Amino acid sequence: MAEHVAPSTDNQEQETRMLRDSIRGFMARDLTEARIAECEAAGELPWEMVGELRQFGYLGGLLPEDAGGYGLSYRTWAMMMEEAGYRWLSLRVLLNTVNIVAALLHHLGDARQKEKWLKPVMAGEMPVWVGITEPDHGSDVASVQTRAEDKGDHWLINGGKLWTTNGVHGRVGILVARTFTQGCDGDLSLFIVDPEETDFEASRVGTMFIKATATSQLAFNDARVPKENLLGPAGKGLKAILTGLNYGRLNVAAGAVGAAQRSLDLSTDYAKTRKQFGNVIGSYQLVQKLIVDMTIRTEAARALTDRAAQALDAGLPGRKECSIAKLYASEAAHEVASMALQAHGGLGYSTDYPVERLFRDTRGGLIPEGTSEIQTLIIGREVLGISAFT
Q1: Cβ-proximal residues to 390 (8 Å cutoff; 6+ apart), any chain
Q2: Which of 22, 113, 252, 276 has the greatest CB tally within 10 Å of its CB?
Q3: How far, in whole angstroms, is CA 282 from its chain's centroid?
Q4: In whole angstroms, what is the distance from residue 358 CA to residue 341 CA?
Q5: How far is Cα 234 from Cα 188, in angstroms, rounded to an integer?
Q6: Residue 280 in contact with residue 273, Cβ under 8 Å?
Q7: How far is Cα of residue 200 from the mean position of the Cα atoms in its chain?
């Protein structure tokens, strides 16, 4: 993989390089293609695999050290997500989910909630999910229709969620629901849902990409959630979720850069060794054009992602920067994966080789954390100061 740690102080750069090299060595050794293929065939990723990455700061790495985190910069975090995306995008998706849950519990949770759920989540011991998207509401988060009614000693939840990562395996989840109390008439709130306390239905949803993330549908029919499981103030959930989505966009962008780099590396190696008509195919002009186009897209995506991370490190909202990075990097990664498939010819279609998985999985990056169309509207609003959302 190409070097991509931006200049800072010599010590910081050296530490980042050492961390990157350690992560890269671990993933090459322990997350082999054979192990990934087994998980893909089973349609799930063992949670202990997520826990194995705790040693590198992948669980709660952005949280402060006094909260059990590592106090990492966003630039370091982007590097780590790139390494995860390079190895396997399903892993990057699950890491995104667990860190969103950890961040919400840290910022909004009370002492009891942190002790009961945040600690085991940070230790990699508790599979998680986040329930936002619904069958009729995806990009329009503010229009979520799942209801939470205050019944005195509990909340009564009715509604459903779709495309929920890891929903069938989660031992705790964070649910977004429209809340009805004396002081809250339909604003969105967050609820901690523990399957040991709340009965609900969870079923698998088949997908063409990120097959090991156990994509799920959740159904809540008069489901009782303990009153004390409200996460943060009632009616204040929308801002928290939108903030989390902005952070998630950096994760998607960085993971996409990693996948693009993997596609490029595989294609470069193949072009140097595969022979046709008596010559390695890399000696032909049209193959070189493919490799050059792949390189340009990958480098541009990395630069835009680094720019977004720098904005967040500077304390800026980073809405425009993160949306630009997510839009460009996710689309570039799929373009690069498509070129990689072309460069590999028939071998690119083989399920015994990672190119076809990269092609499928990179297509998935254009949808979550806001589709490419939504990112376009966000960027337009930030640039023009005029909202096209209706």
Answers
A1: none
A2: 252
A3: 34
A4: 9
A5: 7
A6: yes
A7: 25
CA distances in angstroms from 350 to 160, 303, 358, listed in the order given:
37, 32, 12
Instruction: State which amino acid sits at residue 100.
Output: I
Determine the Cα–Cα distance for residues 307 and 21; give it in Å rounded to an integer.
22
Classify residue 183 by burial, with Cβ atoms within 10 Å: 0-12, 13-18, 19+.
Answer: exposed
Residue 53 φ/ψ, nearest 5 degrees? -90, 0
Please say whether the beta carbons of 326 and 297 come within 8 A: no
Tokens describing residue 140: 């329009």
Pick the closest to residue 202 from 129, 139, 102 (CA basis): 129
Q: What is the pTM for the complete model shown?
A: 0.93
Instruction: Assess whether pLDDT exceeds 70 at residue 4.
Output: no
Q: Is the pLDDT of residue 256 over 50?
A: yes
* Residue 252 vs residues 73, 78, 241, 341: alpha-carbon distances, Å: 17, 9, 16, 22
Enter the DSSP assignment of 65: G
- Number of Cβ within 10 Å of residue 332's Cβ equals 26
Spatial distance between the Cα atoms of 111 and 305, rounded to a whole number of angstroms: 35
Give residue for tokens 């989660």: 170
Lookup: tokens for 375: 């990112």
Q: Rounded to 5 degrees, what are φ and ψ at 69? A: -95, -160
Residue 5 confidence (pLDDT) above 70: no
How many Cβ atoms are within 10 Å of 244's Cβ, its own excluded?
A: 22
CA atoms within 13 A on the CB side of 159: 24
Nearest to 106 by CA among 190, 186, 4, 214: 190
Closest to 261 in 3D by CA, of 85, 59, 78, 122: 85
Residues in the chain: 390
